[in-house]
Design goal:
heterodimer; A: about 300 residues; Rossmann fold; Alpha-Beta Plaits; B: about 250 residues; mainly alpha
């Protein structure tokens, strides 16, 4: 094992299932102690990417290394170092939360005490409840606890907060940050820009099996924010007004983000801002927000990935 | 920043014990499992002991019935309960998740086998005890033990073949359906001679008939039933290979 190398690396990895699914020619390195969020629309290849790293999928081409090990050929050496959270399921429905966690603890030589961990994920009072009777959020938190119980060096979390209520989500974020601060390498997939922005050191955006962006959330937002304006009006633009905005010579392109929000592209954003303000000042609708420059991660995402196919 | 020692897998006996405990809980916690594992064989024993359908001259009803009911018991645990629970563990991705934990597959499979075996030992002990105390059974158990072990293996392989070949819902239906068919044509509580003539030769070569007739001969103190044991062994090999080939972890 090479302590100085990346914790996780994919190089030239291709895995296809036919029908254009899977991932193609993926290069991605995650440094030790780094938290990388893999962001992408449904079916983009997020789960395939983590499952390649977890050793669940064998790449058609390319190499996968986790802590310097091949996760398939050196599976026995690799597995004690990993914490895995599947996207859903993976737990005996008839077993209680505490029984399940004790079982997984017994797989490791020096596990975290199951009782403490159960409390950490907010399930202390649900320990006797069987998995099938737990709410969606509680199931996810139990699944997270199973990933943590072996004190892993690398955590793979596939949509850890999907379907969670806000309270569960905040707790989960807190726990993930805590592990990250203890030096654990984390790779998580998510739909949520907010999650990626709040947690990740770097964000990898995947679309149709290809890596289309990889950078810190701040850099990504800034880079893609060049020449972008975010516009929000009190009521939505009527088709006529939208046409008029599009017709402004300073504005190159307008896309609708929904809920009276628009994303404008312009070579000279300041001039475009002035033109839009002037246009809306006469005849409305009233302007609520006009932001020039730094875009949000959401804009980057929409910009880089194609719409639902 | 990271703590020095790398996380390691537990020594296998610890993982094995924990897994065995869970496998036993899973087998015995669900009401429907207890019904087929325990209640049904006992009910069959009680119900059919009074039935006047057994071949005359071959001793008392219990001499025919106990080997049959033992066959039913092994079928219940190996084919029905193991088959269905394994299929659902795959469906719920439990097998997949365990594949991502440092639990060697051999430990998992060993724990499952041990759990099934323990349950079956309990079934056999209880049924033999009931047969002896309540129905005056007086055969010898020892010669039957290796035959029952072979039968247990055969039905476990059949259950795992179903679980490997079929989706969870179909395994549920398939295992229960086959169970009913075997109850009727297996020569377990109903002698094969009571079946329609055309069905008898087919019924006689199926695993439950092979096991129950071999057991009848062994428990009754007869000669080693070579033909039936060979037949049962053949089924076990075929089904074992099928189970190993068809089995999928996810």
């Amino acid at each position: 094992m090479s302590p100085d190398g990346p914790a996780v690396s994919l190089s030239g990895v291709t895995k296809s299932y036919g029908e254009g699914r899977g991932v193609a020619d993926l290069d991605l390195e995650v440094a030790a102690g780094e938290l990388v969020a893999v962001l992408g629309p449904n079916g983009a290849g997020k789960t395939t990417t983590v499952e390649l790293m977890e050793g669940y999928r064998r790449p058609d081409r390319g190499t996968v290394r986790v802590l310097g090990l091949d996760p398939i050929r050196e599976r026995r050496a690799c597995l004690p170092l990993l914490g895995i959270m599947l996207q859903e399921g993976g737990i005996y429905p008839a077993l209680s939360a505490a029984e399940t966690l004790r079982l997984f603890a017994a797989y490791f030589r020096d596990p975290e005490p199951p009782g403490e961990l159960l409390e950490r994920v907010g399930l202390a009072d649900r320990g006797r409840a069987r998995y099938r009777h737990l709410s969606g959020g509680a199931r996810q938190r139990l699944s997270l606890a199973l990933a943590l119980v072996g004190r892993p060096r690398v955590l793979f979390l596939d949509e850890p907060t999907a379907g969670m209520d806000p309270r569960s989500r905040l707790l989960t974020w807190e726990i993930i940050r805590e592990r990250r601060s203890q030096g654990v390498t984390v790779l998580l997939t998510t739909h949520s820009m907010e999650e990626a922005e709040r947690l990740a050191d770097r964000v990898a955006i995947i679309d149709r099996g290809r890596l289309v962006a990889l950078d810190s959330p701040t850099h990504l937002s800034q880079a893609a924010g060049q020449g972008l304006l975010e516009l929000e009006t009190v009521t939505g633009l009527t088709p006529t007004r939208l046409q008029e905005v599009r017709a402004l010579s300073a504005v190159d392109e307008v896309s609708e983000l929904g809920e009276a929000r628009y994303l404008l592209r312009a070579t000279e954003p300041a001039r475009a801002a002035a033109a839009v303000t002037a246009l809306l000042a006469e005849g409305g609708p009233q302007l609520r927000l006009l932001r020039v420059g730094a875009g949000s991660l959401e804009e980057v995402f929409l910009d880089l990935t194609e719409g639902p196919s | 920043m990271t703590p020095a020692p790398l996380p390691r897998a537990a020594p296998w006996p610890r993982a094995f014990r924990a897994q065995l405990r869970v496998e036993l809980i899973l087998l015995l916690r669900q009401g429907e499992n207890l019904l087929v594992i325990l209640v049904l064989p006992i009910v069959l024993l009680a119900l059919f002991d009074g039935a006047r359908i057994f071949p005359s001259g071959s001793g008392r009803p219990i001499d025919f019935l106990l080997p049959g009911v033992l066959t039913v018991a092994l079928m219940s645990t190996g084919m029905v309960t193991l088959g269905i629970s394994t299929a659902y563990q795959r469906y719920y991705r439990v097998l997949k998740r365990l594949g991502g934990a440092p639990l060697p597959r051999a430990t998992l499979v060993g724990a499952k086998a041990a759990a099934v075996l323990l349950v079956e030992v309990g079934q056999v002990a209880l049924l033999v005890l009931i047969g002896w105390l309540l129905f005056g059974w007086s055969g010898t158990l020892a010669p039957g033990l290796p035959i029952m072990a072979l039968g247990a293996l055969c039905f476990a392989a059949l259950g795992l073949t179903l679980a490997g070949a079929l989706r969870a819902e179909l395994t549920l239906g398939g295992a229960n359906g086959l169970y009913l068919v075997f109850l009727v044509v297996g020569g377990v509580v109903l002698p094969i001679s009571h079946l329609p003539n055309w069905l008898q030769p087919l019924a006689a070569i199926l695993p439950p008939a092979a096991l129950s007739s071999a057991l009848r001969s062994a428990l009754g103190g007869g000669a080693l039933p070579g033909a039936q044991v060979a037949l049962l062994g053949g089924w076990t090999i075929v089904l074992g290979v099928l189970a190993a080939t068809l089995f999928r972890w996810e």
